[in-house]
Amino acid sequence: MPEVQYITTKEAAKKWGITQRRVLALCEEDRIPGLARLGNMWIIPSHAPKPADGRSLRYTSGHTAEIHPFVKWAGGKGGTLPELRKAYPPQLGRSIKKYAEPFVGGGAVLFDVLSRYELSEVFICDSNPQLMNAYRCIRDHADTLIHRLKKLEKSYLSLSSQGRKAFYYEKRERFNGLSRPATIEAAALFVFLNRTCFNGLYRVNGKGRFNVPMGAYKNPTICDAKNLYRLSDALQGVTLCCGDYRQAEQFIDEKTFVYFDPPYRPLSTTSSFTSYTQGGFDDEAQRQLAEFFRRMDRKGAALALSNSDPKNSDEHDSFFDELYSGYNITRIQAARSINSKSAGRGKISELLITNY
After folding, report:
1. How many CA atoms lie within 13 A of 32 on its CB side?
2. 138-150, pLDDT tens digit by residue?
3. C-alpha span between 127 and 107 (Å, rounded)
4. pLDDT band with cut points at 50, 70 and 90 for residue 1
């Protein structure tokens, strides 16, 4: 029997006409017969055929998403996604070929849209610099980021409860002390802290320092390599922006679907989870956003916006009903998942506002 000849992932990528990142994803998914390891490097039999692509491709419509957000995020839309999906504009993927999400957060809607519709351009933005750095590193440096996360996961899970606590606070201090926050190390620590902190909450104090205590997860998934590679593929060609939502204005036109998911208006004085970055998002900021919404409506874009329903706590509070008067306002059921008390969790009403 002749000796098997092996090639590198780079050589396989050239042979199969795909990116090296995609070959690495296939290796992580164990989809290549005869695959082997040489130290830390994958090697592939030279005669191995290119595996059939079973992904939900960005440019293939009608498939169920196989990708999910890489972070837990307060106000994340995973629970309400089925209802939101029903409300996508019917022209999406046809006359509407562009998508913008100016408050991207965890990206549940973004990744659902990417996996289902044919799009020509995508723009995402968020004011949280650490979040957008993580998106950038997943898109551009997935291999290195995954390598770092695997090391963090292995180290953390091997420790006792006390050892994990010390490790967590050491990494939190390191994260807060980085002189260059826009790095792969910062992205890895960001994901690590998110997956191991209390309730997956991202919160900073007045000095901009991440201050969430450690969570109590027994076996947290810190590095989901398969998902991260799929996310990296999905983000190729996506324009990333860190800053104010108004930066999306030049991108938005009559061929764009825009989904707004801003920091929610608190239902009470104790329910505010808007401190994802320094500063806040008060009622005046909500009014300014509504004016931006109306301006984008005049440009002909298809618009959808989510926010809290004040009537959950005060049936006479018509803040958003008045602010978005003239638009379609639907109340949908959503799970309140981030609350320090179990009594504060459960189903509540949220608003979905559209101009179509």
Report:
1. 27
2. 999 999 999 999 9
3. 14
4. low
